[in-house]
Known about the structure:
The protein is of the alpha/beta class.
Amino acid sequence: MNNAPIVQETGIAGLLLVHLPVHEDARGWFKENWQRAKMVAAGLPDFRPVQNNVSFNRLAGTTRGIHAEPWDKYVAVIGGSVFGAWVDLRAGEGFGKSFSATLGPGQAVFVPRGVGNGFQTLEPDTGYSYLVTEHWSEKARSGYTFLNLADPSAGIPWPIPLAKATVSEADRTHPMLDALTPVGPRKTMVLGANGQLGRALAALAPADGSYEFATRGQMDITDARQLAALDLSGYRAVINAAAYTQVDEAETPAGRRASWAANVTAVGQLAVACTQHGTTLVHLSSDYVFDGRKPSYTEFDAPCPLGVYGQTKAAGDAVVAQAPRHYLVRTSWVVGDGKNFVSTMTRLARAGVDPSVIDDQFGRLCFARDLAAGILHLLDSQAPYGTYNLTNEGETVSWARIAAEVFAALGHDPGRITATSTDGYRAAHPAMAPRPVHSTLELSKIKATGFIPPDQFEALAGYLAAYLPEA
Ligand SMILES: NC(=O)c1ccc[n+]([C@@H]2O[C@H](COP(=O)([O-])OP(=O)(O)OC[C@H]3O[C@@H](n4cnc5c(N)ncnc54)[C@H](OP(=O)(O)O)[C@@H]3O)[C@@H](O)[C@H]2O)c1
């Protein structure tokens, strides 16, 4: 006997009708009402319910709705039959679209957050169960949106006229569609909003209120109590752009402590919070998790960090990889709105300083704007979860070559730059932490998702024009 559910589209984005195999004999019937592996294989989202409710209705004609809830929901009949009606109450093109179907034990419906549900029992003693992805709470009540059962534009063909139906007083008085505020998108929280990546995300993310930004002053991720108070109910994603990024200071006793606190302990707490709420965690990894002995690295290469910063990043990566919904975005040599190699070279060029620059460490730049664009792409395209390398495209180059490009682009003589070896530089800067010789990250995996990172030197020209106009 075929035991696989069949998933059917409904015309409302994300609302799915599921046909369930029901096994009947003289005693009654049996069905696998929810079987995650089979449902996901059949085309349902990887739904992780935390609460199961059952509604039992004595009379035929009992009518409830139309309620759009702040979570995803899977509804299935456990006895009798119901007429179900759904109206898309989410902001966007689909707003107001409706769909209806009769559900018996052989049908179930996956209802995404923001789609309104209405149910009318067609037989006495009808029960239906629903699995939901958030715990119900008083606070959740404010996340509901209600539509009148008799809304003329939705035009639901209730089999039992509403005048003869059993309907609660509250459900009789809900507003019509034209008086409704559509349900907004689920929110994304950006932590470390004042860093290079945080600022780039703020510049690029849609300004429709769906992105929230917290600086270290607003949310210190090393403060366990603050992090524990972060309520992720209804959040689609957390982008953790916060990190301890002072590579050399991380080698000091105080820096080591701070680096572990921000890059590991806090990340573990975030991963647990995201797991509990079904929230996607986007976290940033670094080329410094590698020892740099290979000319380039894929997502499959095992970490082998040289210094404390890299060790803490590698430990954070291992923690993030345990979250069921995660994007671990590994990048290198980030250049954005903040202190970075390009801004330093610009300052030195303009100040008339002739720098010594290392020419035996190799990698590729990643402009924070392109890093932010790649992260938004992963989230919006719902790319498969996992680790992704993400930098700009182009040839592998040394720091000295990049310095020369910056000087030349700004109209200064690249001949003012003296190339030096890592050992030579360390002799003059003994506190320099160990750094990988090779930092190039292979980009084929992110490109296969449809994101094509721009060339690093084209991006450099745009960066210099946008961020660093001559004083
Ligand atoms: N920069 C690079 O070359 C590079 C290379 C590879 C990977 N990465 C990774 O990419 C990510 C973003 O880097 P970035 O260049 O944007 O770094 P960044 O400019 O140094 O920004 C890091 C941000 O994190 C904040 N922060 C530090 N400790 C915090 C805490 N306890 N709670 C909350 N916020 C805290 C900082 O706050 P303040 O503004 O108050 O200091 C800063 O705004 C990091 O994970 C980093 O490890 C960077």
